[in-house]
Structure prediction request, 336 residues.
Amino acid sequence: MAEHILEVEDLRGYYRGTFGVVHAVDGVSLTLDRGVILGIAGESGGGKSTLAQLVSGTPPPLLHLEGGRVLVDGIDIYNIDSEELRTEIKCKRMSYVPQSSMESLNPVKRIRDFIFDVVGQRTSKRVLSSERKKEVIEMAANHMKTLGLDRPVLDRYPHELSGGMKQRVVIAISTLWNPKLLIIDEPTSALDVTSQKRMIESLLNLKRARIIESMLYISHDLTSLRQLCGECIIMYAGKIAEIGDMEGTINDPLHPYSRLLTAAIASYDSKGRRKGELKSIAGSPPDLRYPPAGCRFHPRCPYVMDICKTKEPPMFRTGERMGGAFCWLLASQSGE
Ligand SMILES: Nc1ncnc2c1ncn2[C@@H]1O[C@H](COP(=O)(O)OP(=O)(O)OP(=O)(O)O)[C@@H](O)[C@H]1O
Ligand code: SF4
Ligand SMILES: [Mg+2]
Prediction:
């Protein structure tokens, strides 16, 4: 068994089309240990979904893997054939729930029939025997229970379910084979506050019930990130700005972008009151067809120095703290 459930090494993925070349993920490295929930935060357009698509092993047509490696449970997923990727990785080891995935349910099929279709596609047995169907329904009903959904949901059509229920149905289907790693992109963004809370609780239950082991959780929402994640990555313009434990990164961010981001994202206390004053980040993220030289945050950074404009900062660590930040300001403190 590999030491880490996920290892990403110097990953680069660019969109190529008539619009040019978008450097959406550009040199990202990370490791995810077994049992950990790692959150990814950052402004819109920072490359979070692109990173998730690359890690899932099925980038959409315009997105190209330009370099680097993705190891899932020790297996280099861009170096195996598509059949092994489908059967060995996608079912058993890793499942990916994309942004807006609740729209993926078939509107003219009951949930149970949709589940049979999905199982047929994943296991290359297009038509399931009645015996197999019974097994699949038991598995699905069990997962749905863990996610707070009653058995009768199986007989409903998608339009009969709320947004939160549809999202949880998609998660139940995506985790049918108990994948070790769940990658989930913005599952709470289209939900009201009550449904968001239920979603967080459901995701925690999946882990408690050992249906999944680890999670890569992408969200704009700081409150849900804090409730779920032990570790956190802040992404900016296709690169990692900071990696650390969740509370350290939120309470005492090292990178200037993380500081501005945490001040700009609403955080709520247990009574639903907003904590702190919201401050927007001046300027806008760069056009990733023409990323800035040096540190990609330099055109917006209040602390910019000459070196930032020409030389890309490596990761600097400080003290005993886990992870570190890619910022020249930390060069003198880290002793590297
Ligand atoms: N299909 C595409 N074709 C071209 N460029 C794209 C495509 N999808 C995304 N991009 C660009 O890639 C960059 C990263 O986008 P991505 O969707 O990964 O960001 P994100 O952090 O997930 O944003 P959000 O928070 O809005 O979901 C952006 O510059 C975006 O405009
Ligand atoms: S490297 Fe320079 S520009 Fe980039 S965040 Fe640090 S101080 Fe700001
Ligand atoms: Mg996204």
